[in-house]
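comment on this one:
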Amino acid sequence: MKKIEHIGIAVKDLEAANATYKAVLGSEHYKTERVESEGVSTSFFKIGESKIELLAATNAESPIAKFIEKRGEGIHHLAFAVDDIKAEIHRLEKEGFKLINTAPKKGADNKLVAFMHPKSANGVLVELCQHAPS
């Protein structure tokens, strides 16, 4: 693990949350993106070397919609940058951690991603991120 890549925050209203985080961070988001496979719209803010990713559901079956229904808005996941996501998945499995994704998939912000189950990390959903090759 190289660094905290981003912190994912589940929100009900992406435009309202963009305005809130613009005021909090003192800068505009630099990118919005829709990830159809996850039923989510995202917005990214840069803060130092890390990012804040706001996530809003695009449908009622989205994992974000279910998260907000169960827990309300707030921190959804903690993402770590890795050099080799496949090797990191393998290492974590060998350590006995339960992974939601045993193979990387395409995520937002030109990343390959995989998630570790919160039950394996003291209730925190952990995301592994690797820059997707061009």
Observations:
- The chain has a mean pLDDT of 96.
- Residues 97 and 120 are 6 Å apart (CA to CA).
- Helices lie at 14-25, 63-71, 85-94.
- DSSP finds three helices and eight strands in the chain.
